[in-house]
Protein: 8-amino-7-oxononanoate synthase
Organism: Frankia nepalensis
Amino acid sequence: MHRLRGRVPFWDPVIDEIDGRRIRVGDHWLIDFASCNYLGLDLEPEIMAAVPEYLARWGTHPSWCRLVGNPRLFTELEQALAELLGAEDTLLFPTVSHIHFSVLPALAGAGAVFVELRAHHTIHEGARMASTRGARVIRFREENLPGLARKLAASDRNPKVICVDGVNSMTGNGPPLAELTELARAYDALLYIDDAHGFGVLGERSADELSPYGSRGNGTVRHLGGDYDGLVLVGGLSKAYSSLLAFVACPPEIRHFLRIAAGPYTYSGPPPVASFATAQAGLRFNAIRGDVRRADLYRRTSRVLDGIHALGLETRNETGFPIIEVPLADPDLIEPLGTFLFNRGILATMVPYPIVPRRETGFRISVTAANTDAEIEELLRVIAAAADRFPLRRAADGPETGDG
Ligand SMILES: Cc1ncc(COP(=O)(O)O)c(C=O)c1O
């Protein structure tokens, strides 16, 4: 992975300018299918317009760590998020990574952290930090829940925390929430879910929903019909809400504990005021136009998925979530494939080993509501050309087994 840096155009590029979802790198224009600004709120004029008033009231940056001074910006947003989620309480941090690196070790203490193998890298890092404080880290696969049950039964450590992604950042798929909840309850474990991607896109189901993403974008737990009993939901606003903020949804007693035990509350600076402005404006937008925007996102994503299926290519996406990974049969061709896509004007997220297992090396497309239909058609033309030239994995090949 490190050898790609500086050697190939698609790795670590400097972006000089944006124009909608088109970006300029030097004198080369590309269409951006790597952003996770799913709802397109980063480009929404009414959200940008919310910033100056906040800056006039609060300055650019509060600068206090929260323990020293809590601008009302925090508590207002925490309340608004709790209401949207239908959770008892929330606690804000700057990023999801801050939460995994501090909240997870605090919750785990000297107990046991059960981490799903495919969970995001930052959860694994958080688990490693928990292990330096005495917790035992045990890995499991979501496909093998009886295996997890055996590991839970065999562990005499307490507390027990089970960590999974809400929406996996490579497959776009969700966890088996009902089964995990049952196991967590049976073994008195806390279920810890990273919903960095799902929050803002997926939401509660209803008969009159405008798309299979559900309504209100209030997160994976509501989408899958779960509740917050014995569950800590970690959500981010840096993807669907295009704002640097993240939250933990948890009961008041855990919130109180985290204010003392999670380092960033005491030691880290706050997110910028502009992020509070765009988050609040985003929530107002969500209440009025969010479902229509999500229906549009679903339609655009379905077009990409249909195109990929029509080409006979494999993708693990089973949900229609706007994350679509296309694997390469020969992982050693990642460099020429990435260069091909880049030169043909597509910015995708290239995912080499060890970001994913070797057999899943490929590229990831993330679709946003701000990608135009014409951009999506161009994407499909370039993928078709890539499929002619590179051994992209075919759906007919079937999944491989082994650890890669
Ligand atoms: C599933 C998941 N968790 C956590 C993160 C890190 O989030 P943050 O940028 O808020 O630290 C990401 C970032 O892409 C992610 O995809």
In short: Residues 95-97, 120, 122, 165, 169, 194, 196-197, 236, 238, 246 surround pyridoxal-5'-phosphate (CB under 6 Å). The domain at 2-43+290-397 is CATH 3.90.1150.10 (Aspartate Aminotransferase, domain 1). Residues 216 and 289 are 9 Å apart (CA to CA). The chain has a mean pLDDT of 95.
